[in-house]
């Protein structure tokens, strides 16, 4: 069997020529085995008509196997020559023949060095793309962070606007006075909350006793 990969032929036929020859060989070999079994069965039937014949079925089987081995040896020699002829003259694409799908290589030929340079350029572009994508992702994250900070600042500004409105309603425009006013109100709210919590605890205790 040929060891030449014949990749160009495989591209054209859709299978390797060696695979084709192997299948043909197996098909011929199977047919040879079947034929010998048929011959053996015919001989056995013929012998049934001669009761005085001293040839046993075992001897016939040994003779059949011997003849099969002889046929297979000659078949292998003949097939080897046939394979060589078919691989060279039938299943072989000449070196000067170019497949239609490879015509572009004839129009735009590239040397090995040019192809390697093109591969290097593609690799650099891929690295550059990954770097730009990473930078873009970092920029988007930064913009999201800035947006969150801007929202917090807008809340603070709204809080100061509310504080200013409260100061105006109570006739205080000085920030220090306004802050003192808010602190006092916060202290009152804390006292009220504490009182509510104490009353709530008393009510719970009362309910438990009941």
Question: Quick summary of this structure?
Answer:
Residues 108-206 form a coiled coil. The protein is an all-alpha fold and 210 residues long.
Short key terms for the protein model shown above:
single chain; 210 residues; Centromere_Mis12; mainly alpha; 6 helices; kinetochore
| C-alpha geometry | elongated
Order of helices and strands: HHHHHH
What distance lies between the first and last C-alpha atoms, to the nearest angstrom? 103 Å
Number of domains: 3
Put simply, the count of helices is 6
Helix content: over 70%
Number of beta strands: 0
Task: Give the radius of gyration.
Answer: 49 Å
Mean pLDDT: 78
Q: What class do helices, strands and sheet pairing give?
A: mainly alpha
Low-confidence stretches: none
Question: Tell me about the biggest sheet?
Answer: none
**Which strand-content bin applies to the residues?**
under 5%
What does this structure look like?
With 210 residues, the chain is mainly α. It folds into 3 domains: 7-107, no CATH class; 138-173; 174-209. 81% of the residues lie in helices and 0% in strands. It has 6 helices and no strands. The protein has helices at 7-13, 17-48, 57-90, 103-107, 112-169, 175-209. Helix 2 runs antiparallel to helix 3. The protein is elongated, with a radius of gyration of 49 Å. The mean pLDDT is 78. This is Protein MIS12 homolog. Keywords: Cell cycle, Cell division, Centromere, Chromosome, Coiled coil, Kinetochore, Mitosis.
